[in-house]
Amino acid sequence: MSEEFIIERKLLLDGEGSGEDQRLNVFVKQLAIWAKSSKSPTECEAGYNSMLAQLNRLELYKKRMNLRMRCYKRQLKTYRAMHDNYRAKKELVLKDIEKQEKFLGEAKIIKKYRIDRNLIVKTVNEGQSCRQLTEEVHNLKKDISNLEDEKEHLQSQLKNRVQQFRLLSVTANILKMSLQNNSSL
């Protein structure tokens, strides 16, 4: 027999390495001892009861192992379902994060525009309204018109005064000459 054959057989008999092989070997040895023994019926009865107890323990152990395996399989199935559920939730959360990042980018742009708008509104509110500016322009035009009229009036007065001064100067010169002529006479 090769080593591989022995290992395969041992694994096949031992199952999951839980000592089942040893229990079976002990049971087989007890059975062989009981079958070969030539003891009294009461001692045979005790050996028989011992083997039955060992057999019951083996069956109970096998049932427990089967129950554990079913429980493990159920837990594994539950954990896989939970894992799939968490994976789906993770994908949803990642998609939601992407949407929120887009919303955040849009919110930043909106905030920037809102700040710009508020600055413009503040500047406009600090300045005068169109109606006030129109009134001010109209008043300034009136003032300019009044000042032009006053300028024309003052220029005409100046012209009159210059003419009067020339007339006075010419008259004074004529008087002076006539006085000089009179005094020379």
UniProtKB/TrEMBL annotation:
Pfam families to which the protein is assigned, alphabetical: THOC7
GO cellular component terms listed in the entry, alphabetical order: THO complex part of transcription export complex
GO BP, sorted A to Z: mRNA processing
Keywords: Coiled coil, Nucleus
Coiled coil among keywords: yes
Stated name of the protein: Uncharacterized protein
Subcellular location as annotated: Nucleus
Sections of the chain in a coiled coil: 130-164
InterPro entries linked: THOC7/Mft1
